[in-house]
Amino acid sequence: MGKAEFPVLQVSALRWENGSLVLLDQTRLPEEEVYLVCGEHRQVAAAIRRLAVRGAPAIGVAAAFGVVLGAQEILARGGDLQTELPAVFQELRSTRPTAVNLFWALDRMARVWQAQGRKEPAATVSALEAEASRLFREDAESNRRLGEFGAALLANGMNILTICNAGALATVAYGTALAVVRAAVARGKKIAVTACETRPLLQGARLTTWELLRERIPVTLITDSMAGFVMQRGLVQAVITGADRVAANGDVVNKIGTYTLAVLARQHGLPFYVAAPFSTVDLAIPEGSRIPIEERAEDEVICWQGRRLAPTGVKALNPAFDFTPARLVTALITDRGIVRNGEWEKLQQLA
Ligand code: MRU
User: Which domains does the chain carry?
Assistant: First the structure.
């Protein structure tokens, strides 16, 4: 397959600069473009917890640089990496439970650390920095490849329904679901996006629209409850979502509301695609119902920007993700190729 020429990206969620991790604070978008300069691993952990940096691949890469910062801190105070670095790993591992990219990236960092043995501490810190930078580059490259595979599935003139933000803001570059859109556009196809607002934290309304507007890719915002209506009216021709974790049998865990879209897509005969790099595939988990689902604070549902939306004393549920059975997934678009429904054992081969 020929390479699509991606336009220069207008959006970057994270970068490593002069020994600090610079994060675009996504909680402030779209009103303000504010960057957080994290010089300590605790700042990175806090940023992941409060979704200043979010999206499975971006969380993994941010955490990897969090380890580098933790190691730098230990070195600066003359501490011992051997005894103190495990607490840094632990703090970063405990930030969010669902996206497997976090654990995958931290495991890679841990392997590099272990391979260093009792080498000079400064050499260990350099090796950790090199690995985090590798993870950064690999993520951009994986998403570019995944986009190129996925673009072949989109026909000229399609309108794609998506949820949450599975774009450049959720990754090092290009995104996952939106990398597919970007690659199709780069090949000259006319593609438009319909973005579900994604209650309660509005990643679709705040982030997906923001990054697509910057790249002049046509986007229309809908509330989550309009998804059935837009399908019934023929306003969208396919659904593409990202994933936080894909189980060995092809089950997918992604942003709350994804399962609803998959059921609706089946009802309306539309393809339901999931775009995810292999860093999101967890072959150690046989099926999706075993993937831990993050429960976030009730206040995220009850309030918006400090303003109460519901009466005092009401209870609220706030699962951040849901689980979509593989039978509803038309195909998984990965950086190693497309895995179609019923070919899930191919995940093992590609891994
Ligand atoms: O809670 P978030 O904003 O981190 O949730 C993000 C998602 O659900 C994305 O769809 C997923 O991480 C894939 S991002 C490329």
Answer: 14-143 (1.20.120.420), 146-350 (3.40.50.10470)
Task: Give 3-state DSSP helix, strand, coil % of the chain, rounded to 5.
Answer: 45, 15, 40
Q: What is the mean pLDDT of residues 246-251?
A: 98
Query: Distance, CA 57 to ligand 1 centroid (Å)?
Result: 8
Q: What is the per-residue pLDDT for 205?
A: 98
pLDDT tens-digit map of 168-191 = 999 999 999 999 999 999 999 999
* pLDDT, mean over the chain: 96
Rounded CA-CA distance 131/61 in Å is: 10
> Which of the two residues, 78 and 10, has the higher pLDDT score?
78
- Which ranges constitute the DSSP H helices of the chain? 41-49, 56-76, 81-93, 100-116, 121-151, 177-186, 203, 209-214, 227-232, 258-267, 299-302, 346-350
Distance of alpha carbon 198 from alpha carbon 224, whole angstroms: 6
Q: Whose CA is nearest to atom 6 of ligand 1?
A: 55
Within 221-286, residue ranges assigned H as helices are 227-232, 258-267
Mutate to test the pocket of ligand 1, among 23, 164, 210, 293 (most ligand atoms within 8 A of CB): 164
> Which residue among the candidates 80, 107, 139, 244 is catalytic per the annotation?
244
pTM beyond 0.90: the answer is yes
The Cα 318–Cα 23 span in angstroms is 26
Q: Is the CB of 203 under 6 A from ligand 1?
A: yes
Mean pLDDT of 150-169: 98
- Per this entry, what is the length of the chain? 351
